[in-house]
Amino acid sequence: MKVSAFSAGCGAVVEDVQLARLTDEQIVELRSIFAEYGVVFFRDQELSPAEHHLFATRFGDIHINPFFKPVDGFADIAEVRKEKGQKTNIGGGWHTDHSYDDEPAMGSILVARSVPAKGGDTRFANLANAYDTLSDGLKTTLESLRAVHSNVHIYGKDGHYAGTDIADTLGGSDKVGNAVHPVVIKHPKSGRKILYVNPAHTICFEGWSYEESRPLLDYLYAHVDKPETTCNFNWKPGSVAFWDNRSTWHFANNDYHGEDRLMHRITLAGTALMGA
Prior knowledge:
Elements: E1 2-5, E2 12-15, H1 24-37, E3 39-42, H2 49-57, E4 62-63, E5 70-71, E6 74-82, E7 107-114, E8 122-126, H3 127-132, H4 136-142, E9 146-150, H5 152-155, E10 178-182, E11 184-186, E12 193-195, E13 202-205, H6 210-224, E14 230-233, E15 240-244, E16 248-252, E17 261-268
Parallel strand pairs: 2-3
Antiparallel strand pairs: 1-2, 3-15, 4-17, 5-6, 6-17, 7-15, 7-17, 8-14, 8-16, 9-10, 9-13, 11-12
């Protein structure tokens, strides 16, 4: 495998490999690349749904998302779809998948099936690099905090998507809830400290009001959303992104109205997060 940095502070590209035919030695190598970079990109993959499933199981157990429609014949592969006539997309804001669960998802594997001629890119952010560039004083403060994460305001019966043109394609409004996690976590493999809050799901710091939490959270979000910490991935048929939900954010750009976009996503189950 040929590995190179995708940008100065975010992601890696792995070339000269087909994910459907990885050896055990390559899986071990890819685990290390995944932990180091947070998000790994692949091009020109010939990956059927069955092979997508098999590739995912080589990294862990699969978590079935309760909100997205599954791919026909594959209950553990979620469709991330936007039709030509729809205005709303899934994931159109900075977020981390499943931070609202007590045991957040370890990773997500997204395969491009149909992409627009232009637009539809996904942005990523490296939260380990973001933590490293905070001041020492703020690092100390954040390491003493925990934060509340929720999806009620997004997938709940009165949540954001309930009032959009994709409401009928989503389910699980009765499966929403909250979780509390350390604001700074330690990555179980790399050992790096990671800033674990995100704009979509983090509501407030534990023991703080929403109004008290907002200024500091907004500062942290602005700190992460900088060119030196983020990157932009342009999808093509056969492209695959494999990201670590413990150490990255992502943001699906919604700039292709009038065209459709279909992605297949598998979510890998995780464990409880350990504070730094």
